[in-house]
């Protein structure tokens, strides 16, 4: 007698049971898809609440401003004053220089440094009203502030900032290299020699010049903090030259940290993700600004006051005396 081939286990199941199982599997699949869609719809309404303050999510106002970017011109003002941050004298008696300190991350850092007891020298290009406001905020926190308008590409300007800061305050303990130039391009051929030169000389040469000028004045326990970027970690299709300079800054940070460690000077970097500062409305078009930061896991850009505590942490020996040569990512995304 010829035996028919029978699927293993079929003797123990009803003839239609496998079809029932397949149907139920698809029902489970559709149930999960519905849950996923509900989560997506919920996520589109509001970013996850991770802070005491309610920070704006996307869509943001599609505003654009002229370079170099005045914060006073922005309709949606960046949050920089960190009202829930309480100072505790972590930087008492210290003196800091912050380049690009007129607005954005630089302003937020200057305010918290003053709240922690430091005096602050603010170097900036020509955003005089913004710089004056930052000085007022530093003084309101109880710190002293001086302003320097000039170009960090100019080695002599960097030397003058350090020399006059020491003359005014008697010492220099902290350097925050933060000034930057950014301009997007769709294709590499759009980046002229002039633009390439402007980006590298501002973002890399400026950091070198400031570090070179300040290091002879620094005592053990001093710190240099460089502003890197998430695009220096992961790259950016439309910020080819800018991303390259940020990658260079990360390497410069690690190399300089090794170079000066025996002198008791620590060098670290912060790598921000998208941050609501004048830098981006002064570069991107209105539609991209509306979606700025939406591709992070937080589904929004950071506000400057969410970055500034990292700069306090890396500047204060009481917090980070055993940390040097790191690039600290504050990107709004997992990993």
Q: Structural class of the secondary structure composition?
A: alpha/beta
Percent of residues in helices: 40-55%
Spatial sequence of strands, sheet with the most strands: 3-2-1-4-5-6-7
Query: What is the distance, rounded to the nearest whole angstrom, between the alpha carbons of the first and last residues?
Result: 65 Å
Q: What is the overall number of helices?
A: 10
Question: Rg to the nearest angstrom?
Answer: 26 Å
Sheet with the most strands, sense and barrel status: 7 strands, parallel
What's the order of the H and E elements? HEHEHEHEHEHHEHHHE
Average pLDDT number? 89
CATH-level-2 architecture: 3-Layer(aba) Sandwich
CATH homologous superfamily name? NAD(P)-binding Rossmann-like Domain
**Unreliable segments of 5+ consecutive residues:** none
**Global geometry:** globular
How many E strands?
7
Strand content: 5-15%
């Amino acid at each position: 007698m010829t035996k028919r081939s029978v699927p293993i286990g079929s003797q123990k199941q009803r003839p239609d049971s496998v079809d029932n199982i397949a149907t139920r599997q698809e029902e489970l699949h559709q149930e999960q898809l519905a849950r996923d869609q509900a989560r997506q719809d919920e996520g589109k309404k509001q970013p996850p609440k991770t802070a005491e303050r309610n920070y704006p999510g996307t869509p943001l106002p599609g505003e654009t401003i002229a370079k170099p970017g005045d914060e006073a011109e922005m309709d949606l003002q960046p949050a920089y004053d960190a009202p829930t941050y309480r100072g505790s004298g972590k930087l008492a008696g210290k003196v800091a220089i912050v380049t690009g300190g007129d607005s954005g991350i630089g302003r937020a850092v200057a305010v918290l440094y003053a709240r922690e007891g430091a005096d602050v020298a603010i170097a900036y290009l020509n955003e005089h009203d913004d710089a004056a406001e930052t000085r007022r905020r530093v003084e309101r926190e109880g710190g002293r502030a001086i302003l320097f308008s000039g170009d960090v590409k100019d080695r002599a300007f960097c030397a003058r900032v350090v020399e006059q800061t020491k003359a005014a305050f008697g010492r220099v303990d902290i350097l925050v290299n933060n000034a930057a130039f950014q301009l997007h391009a769709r294709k590499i051929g759009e980046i002229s020699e002039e633009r390439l030169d402007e980006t590298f000389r501002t973002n890399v040469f400026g950091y070198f010049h400031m570090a070179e000028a300040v290091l002879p004045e620094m005592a053990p326990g001093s710190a240099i903090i460089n502003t890197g970027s998430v695009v220096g970690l992961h790259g950016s299709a439309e910020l080819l030259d800018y991303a390259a300079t940020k990658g260079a800054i990360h390497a410069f940070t690690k190399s300089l940290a090794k170079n000066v460690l025996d002198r008791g000077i620590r060098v670290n970097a912060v790598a921000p993700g998208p941050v609501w500062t004048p830098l981006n409305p002064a570069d991107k078009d209105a539609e991209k600004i509306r979606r700025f930061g939406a591709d992070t896991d937080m589904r929004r850009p950071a506000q400057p006051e969410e970055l500034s505590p990292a700069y306090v942490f890396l500047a204060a020996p009481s917090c980070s005396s055993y940390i040097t040569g790191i690039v600290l990512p504050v990107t709004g995304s997992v990993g």
